[in-house]
Design goal:
Elements lengths: L1 H4 L6 H14 L5 H10 L15 H26 L6 H8 L5
Helix pairs in contact: 4-5
């Protein structure tokens, strides 16, 4: 976790995450029971399909939003290639990419 949530200087971001998480769960009537229940939502060891998990929709929405943002960048890049004096050779590359 230190490698994933820390930085190259110290583990302060991880420390902050742990403290913030602890502070947040204290608002629950039974904080550790609540935390255990929420942790089980990420258990993939059963026979459940990935689409049946409650967090899958959130991930799909995030991925969809990122792809829409990427599409916007490609559309803008294509417009730049169409400008007078624009980078015409790149237009051929972008022309082969199908925007969904």
């Amino acid at each position: 976790m230190v490698e994933s949530f820390g930085n190259n200087k110290d583990d302060a971001p991880l420390k902050d995450l742990v403290i913030d998480s602890h502070t947040f769960i204290q608002s629950q009537p039974d904080p550790f029971k609540w935390l255990d229940e929420k942790g089980k939502l990420f258990d993939l060891s059963g026979n459940q399909q990935l689409d049946e998990h409650p967090w899958t929709g959130v991930l799909k929405n995030g991925i969809s939003n990122n792809l829409e943002g990427a599409e916007d960048y490609f559309v803008e890049a294509i417009k730049v290639t169409e400008l007078t004096g624009g980078p015409y050779p790149i237009e051929k590359l972008f022309g082969r990419i199908s925007i969904i």
